[in-house]
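During the first year of the project, the team set up a workflow for recording each protein of interest as an amino acid sequence followed immediately by a discrete structure-token representation. This format lets reviewers and collaborators read both layers of information side by side without switching files. As required by the reporting guidelines, we include two representative entries from the current panel. The first entry is reproduced here exactly as it appears in our internal archive.
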Amino acid sequence: MEREIDLPKPDQKKTKIECIRCGSIMGEITVCHLKCLNCGAELTCSDKGNFW
């Protein structure tokens, strides 16, 4: 099953966040919820400030 997650477009000024588990670029699900498309690790609002 394929899921679409909005990744930053080249003209947008968003910082790309690397996964803390595998180093891949994470996809943004919501403003403060990121998910790695490679290994499935997630960062949420409670992680903000510690990792990004």
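The second entry, processed by the same pipeline in the following quarter, appears below.
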Amino acid sequence: MTGGQTDDAFDVDRLVTAIEDFNTVFIRLASVHRMSFSTLSVLHSLSRGGPMRLTDLLATEQIKQPALTSLVAKLAAAGLVSRRPDPSDGRAVLLSLTPAGEQVVRSRHAERVTRLARLTDRLDERDRAVLADARAVLSRLVAIAHDPLAPPPDDPPAPPLDDPPARPRARRRTT
């Protein structure tokens, strides 16, 4: 049960490959506001996590601090991200999306919904039902990943398709 294999019916290695293949398609579904993956990741993190310090944002991104600092400066200059003093520590700065940054995230999400709907419309009812069940499981995995010390959540009913799953807010570090 090591090396990604947990039992005969569940092969983590094959699941990872399927997710990687799906991500290759999914991240390219939206064609509006074409930006680098790092840029889009920062916008998405701020959209889902709310205002956060650069150090907290650094924990969510796969780039080094100098690169992130430069990227945030470019996003601020482009009017997509704003900076304001952190009320809990006047020396620190909180980053958040501007209305223009929020619009980029919303429009890319809306286009992905439209394009993914075209793909899922080609699935039969059974495959769509399996995909709906997988959505609930993936949402639980995301929750576990955001708080690895928390016990796994019970098996709550899947939220309606119109409501994105609630995302935990980024934790502020006190330094």
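For the second entry, the following points were noted during internal review. The longest helix spans residues 99-120. Helices lie at 12-26, 37-49, 54-60, 65-77, 99-120, 125-146. Both points are flagged for discussion at the upcoming steering committee meeting.
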